[in-house]
Amino acid sequence: xxxHDSTALQDFRQEVRSWLAENFPAELKGVDGTIYQSNxxxxxxxPTYQLWRERFASVGWGVPTWPVRYGGAGLGTExxxxxxxxxxxxxxxxxxxxxxxxxxxxxxxxxGTEEQKQTHLPYIADHxxxxxxxxxxxxxxxxxxxxxxxxxDMGDHWLVSGQKIWTSGADQADWCFCLVRTDTSRKQGxxxxxxxxxxxxxxxxxxxxxxxxxxxxxxxxxxxxxxxKENLVGEVNGGWTVAKRLLQFERDSLSGVRSxxxxxxxxxxQYVGTDAEGRIADSDLRGRMIHNAMRxxxxxxxxxxxxxxxxxxxxxxxxVSVLKNLWSGIAQERAELEVEILGSQGLGWGDDSYADEExxxxxxxxxxxxxxxxxxSYEVQNNITAKRSLGLPDA
Amino acid sequence: MALNDEQIMLKDMAAGWxxxxxxTTAARALYGAPDGIGHAPDAWAEMAAMGWTGxxxxxxxxxxxxxFRSLGLVLEELGRTLAPSPLLSxxxxxxxxxxxxxxxxxxxxxxxxxxxxxxGTLAVDxxxxxxxxxTALTATPVGGGWRLDGIxxxxxxxxxxxxxxxxxxxxxxxxxxxxxxxxxxxxxxLTRDPLDQVDARVPAIYRFDGVEVGPDSRLVGGTAMVDALxxxxxxxxxxxxxxxxxxxxxxxxxxxxxxxxxxxxxxSFQALQHRAADMxxxxxxxxxxxxxxxxxxxxxxxxxxxxxxxxxxxxxxxxHRISRQMVQLHGGIGMTHEHDAGLYxxxxxxxxxxxxxxxxxxxxxxxxxxx
Lengths: 395, 371
Ligand SMILES: Cc1cc2nc3c(=O)[nH]c(=O)nc-3n(C[C@H](O)[C@H](O)[C@H](O)COP(=O)(O)OP(=O)(O)OC[C@H]3O[C@@H](n4cnc5c(N)ncnc54)[C@H](O)[C@@H]3O)c2cc1C
What we know:
The structure holds two protein chains of two kinds. Chain A is α+β, with helices and mostly antiparallel strands. Chain A has three domains: 7-97, Butyryl-Coa Dehydrogenase, subunit A, domain 1; 131-237, Butyryl-CoA Dehydrogenase, subunit A, domain 2, CATH 2.40.110; 256-389, Butyryl-CoA Dehydrogenase, subunit A, domain 3, CATH 1.20.140. The mean pLDDT of chain A is 93. The longest helix of chain A has 28 residues, at 283-310. In chain A, 45% of the residues lie in helices and 14% in strands. Chain A starts with 6 loop residues before the first helix and ends in a 6-residue tail after the last helix. Chain A is built from 13 helices and eight strands. Chain B has eleven helices and nine strands. By secondary structure, chain B is α+β, with helices and mostly antiparallel strands. Chain B has three domains: 5-118, Acyl-CoA dehydrogenase/oxidase, N-terminal domain (Butyryl-Coa Dehydrogenase, subunit A, domain 1, Orthogonal Bundle); 122-217, Butyryl-CoA Dehydrogenase, subunit A, domain 2; 223-368, Butyryl-CoA Dehydrogenase, subunit A, domain 3 (Up-down Bundle). The two termini of chain B are 29 Å apart. The chains are: A alpha+beta, B alpha+beta. The interface between A and B is large, with 48 and 49 residues.
């Protein structure tokens, strides 16, 4: 928070602020950056976005805590927070958000070989290589470790065959970090972590339509796909340890308060109206909106407290399961409230009787139902908390 | 109240027909259909042939006069598969004419409504929120008749309807100044446009631009009559919602008994067993409230407003919870368009807020009960 900054941090904040003033393209002000994250074609076709991405990558601020040699800025967590705050303040967005940044990068920093780090991290840091996460399978969701995708050691390469599902962005990804089975005699102990080039022969991604009407995830089929030996991360049959760490990074990034998540009060003033004293006219709705906003506020403080307690550079811990459930609940309730505020204007689908902003709220409401499913479901997170944080026994 | 033999037969017949003729694929087929009117005319003709369009029409006008509770049985079965039909909307026009129409008005409209050749609807809301008392559409006396000016949106089943019961504010009409008009949808000066909504239905925007109607189009009664009509809408919609949540629950329960993770059925996890048991208990509360509201319509009970609000509030709350859990407990597959869970969620979003959402009805129930 700005008031508590040390002098050094204050200087840094000033530096970020002036850099942004000079480098953030004015045309992108207020633009929702996630459209570039979710659509490679939108991103590729927009030279202003590309300019912004290149500039941001040149200072390493897309991955501020990564070492400079891998495309980061070698900064601490506090500086990283300041960058986020200043982006929000300037109406700007981080153009380098990706699954690579969220999940694979931090995992490779801990478990990758030097060669793997050099081969992949710089392209995550400048967002020129898109990654997807090939973990879930039709029979292996919550019970991820029961995955079956077969990986055979062919001496000079790996041979992979099997099916993944719910693979977000697989149709747009350049590479996939994947869990495969290298030993069928042990469950967790037979899993390996493999990096697969999506352009390899035998890889096919088929998009699946979501309830929000967009295609965001895919089924991915691997048919006798040859993968170079050096693409194994960690030990053979040691992939579960790597995967568990990656899932913590995933949950950690899914628990962040998204910048620009402002008050819903103005929306309610507009659609619901106010009483004589300026309060939102529907007192029942108002009470629930207040409840949600208060929880979001306490959540922000909790996030900060957990971050402080974890200590610099140690990354997420078991507490991340608590955070993920708190946040998905708060965010889903907020999405419900937005639709309720809009009333019948929040129920539009395809025509111009509804404003774009209204339809975006409706689609987001539907999509938000995934918050408590992906990255490990609500129930699975609570199981983890009960066992690992609270020490409760198995059934 | 226990069902009589005729009602049991009606329910069974509806259940069978809906399963065979209107599975969820029928609703799915209506999504994005070009020039869609939000229901399937062939299916409507079959419903009419089975007498469902006449369930609350007096026998003298070609109906069976089975009552609202019976209508609710059919609506509930239709709700199970999200079967889109204007059955409720049309029945509300019947209710309006029964409650507030004179002999000539009834003779003009009821036979067609009974045999399904006329589809009726209620045109009440004008903006994003259900606020009947804030009606702005005006009815101005002109040359013995009336001129209507204003906008109605969303009008449920508005593109399919032939007859709209329009709630209007009578210019210089005094304190109790809301009134009801029976207006043919092809009247000059009325234009209607479809609204593309998240569910398979197609409500409409009605624009009344100097629409002139005769003196014989005005029904009797004012604000209290509008309320009486709306309470029928709420009871009827709650019945549909009860069917939806019952099916959503059963489909989910079935999934808990088939999906295996960690080498066991997911329904064997206590966390999910308790979730299912909680939903089952919610369903019990809701069913009681809905049945009581439907019966209160037939009994013309004084406490219909309380019962209708109780039914709609509980139906809203329970459908909300169960439809969201339907997605959650199906995991990834529940998020796909291919699976039915999303269709229930989308229809639930609409039904929850139609004719007053849970907050509206909690507030109204509280007011009626001295809170
Ligand atoms: C939008 C979206 C994007 C996704 N993106 C990706 C991706 O990029 N890569 C990837 O690998 N995966 C991805 N997933 C998959 C996601 O991780 C899985 O859907 C999730 O882990 C649940 O698995 P499942 O779908 O098989 O559900 P199941 O595991 O079958 O779960 C069904 C229900 O049972 C519950 N349940 C299961 N086990 C227990 C238990 N022991 N106790 C209590 N309840 C239990 C679950 O919580 C859930 O409610 C995505 C999912 C969604 C919805």
